[in-house]
Amino acid sequence: MKPLYHPDRDDIQLSSVLYALSDPVRLHLVAELRKAGERTCGGMDVPVVRSTLSHHSRTLREAGVVRVRVQGTQRFLSIRTDDLEYRFPGLLDSILQAYAKSGEAAAFQDKTVT
């Protein structure tokens, strides 16, 4: 199996991170990872089908927001907190705090599978 692409710390671009976090599903995934730590794709509580979840996790990975670790048939996601903090100090915390205060997190849970 070919290794998954993860940008080097110095290659993470602000525009890519902001784009990745601009989607409500991806923002919710990152917020869930922040609360629970590393999780498997199957262990994520999001109301989307598996193929859509795969697309969103790839977008986050290629932007440098998450790291995906493959172990057997499982894919484990974790936030690249240290790398993001090094590149853009305070950005992720600010975005996740604003997300939590906005009420979007609670509203997101009520959505149906798309």
From TrEMBL:
Work out whether the entry's keyword set contains Transcription: yes
> Any idea what this protein is called?
Transcriptional regulator
| GO MF, one annotated term | DNA-binding transcription factor activity
Residue span(s) of domain HTH arsR-type: 6-99
Q: What is the lineage of its organism?
A: Bacteria, Bacillati, Bacillota, Bacilli, Bacillales
Keywords for this protein: DNA-binding, Transcription, Transcription regulation
Family matches, as PROSITE patterns: HTH_ARSR_2
Organism listed in the record: Paenibacillus flagellatus
